Amino acid sequence: MAPRAFAFASLLSGSDLIVTGKVQDVITEPTVYHISFLVEDYIKGTSNDRLIKIDVPLANGLRLEDEPYLEKDGRSLLLFLKPGLSQGVRTITNHAAGVLPVGMKDDVTRLVQAYQSNPNFFAKENSAAAQNLFFAFTQQASKQMLLNDLESILSPQDEPFLSALLDSGTEAFQVFGALQAGRLKIASLREKVETLLKSSMSFNVKFHCVVGLGDLGNANSLPLVLEYVQDSNADLRNVAFEAAGKIGGNEIVQPLRERYPQENSDRRLTIIEAIYRLSDRAMAKNTLSYFRSIESKPLLQSILDNRLSTF
């Protein structure tokens, strides 16, 4: 499912009813589950009937693994709902994205109130208000979902918010901060991303810090990025190859040349593209010619021939 389906903006705009409650009954048919849902509280919208009918379409009678709400197990849930195909019946907004833990109720209530008072709440000009709500949320899951909305409205002027995320100590928020610092080319965050890369024990954080530094493209980050082209983790090496290529400079040639014979085809291709990006075209041509002389795989031979033909 597309990430935007999990964004609050999409869920709120597509829902006429947001409720908490419990599944009372489930009737299975080949193409649909009919759910009877007992409402405990209305967060958005209202109905005269506390027991509402929800239809969940199925593909060839198959339910998805991420649809745990299709059970009568006594759990309370928070549902985003929209009109279904039948009169008086609703369906879940954006499929599994519209099912949240009931613990997010207070945060969602705050968000609904802000959204109803300002339908343009998720516009770029309201980025500061969305950030304030982020810090007011009490549940990490709520904050993580709100980041899906913030990603599309942040600008370089939001450097303080991203700086706070990098300092947060929460892995998911640090990853977001590092990626957005790179995407938005916020040079003032480069040293903070570097510090996080060197200090974090999390592979996920390290991986995305390298990505962020590559997107920032500052030559001062190159020595640190090149440390990871020798990392024991192949995925981290690969993203370091790519980041080195984005930053550029002849300093990348020797370490990538040494790694080339030791890598598999996918990572060799990343090295090829990194070298091909060099502004020193003579150096790029000579290095790619060396790769061609030792390459035995037909597909990579063809790719190298294609790249060399452009010089």
Write structural notes for this entry.
The protein is elongated and about 75 Å long. Helices cover 48% and strands 15% of the residues. The two termini are 42 Å apart. It has helices at 8-13, 105-117, 127-136, 140-150, 159-166, 171-183, 190-199, 203-216, 222-227, 234-247, 253-259, 265-276, 281-294, 298-308, and strands spanning 17-28, 32-44, 51-57, 76-83, 89-92, 99-101. The protein has two domains: 3-105, OB fold (Dihydrolipoamide Acetyltransferase, E2P) (Beta Barrel); 140-308, Leucine-rich Repeat Variant. It has 14 helices and six strands. It has 311 residues and is α+β, with helices and mostly antiparallel strands. A hairpin with a 6-residue loop joins β2 (32-44) and β3. Strands 1-2-3-5-4 form a five-stranded mixed beta barrel. α5 (159-166) packs antiparallel against α6.
How are the SSEs placed, and which strands pair?
Elements: H1 8-13, E1 17-28, E2 32-44, E3 51-57, E4 76-83, E5 89-92, E6 99-101, H2 105-117, H3 127-136, H4 140-150, H5 159-166, H6 171-183, H7 190-199, H8 203-216, H9 222-227, H10 234-247, H11 253-259, H12 265-276, H13 281-294, H14 298-308
Parallel strand pairs: 3-5
Antiparallel strand pairs: 1-2, 1-4, 2-3, 4-5, 4-6
Helix pairs in contact: 3-4, 5-6, 6-8, 7-8, 8-10, 10-12, 12-14, 13-14
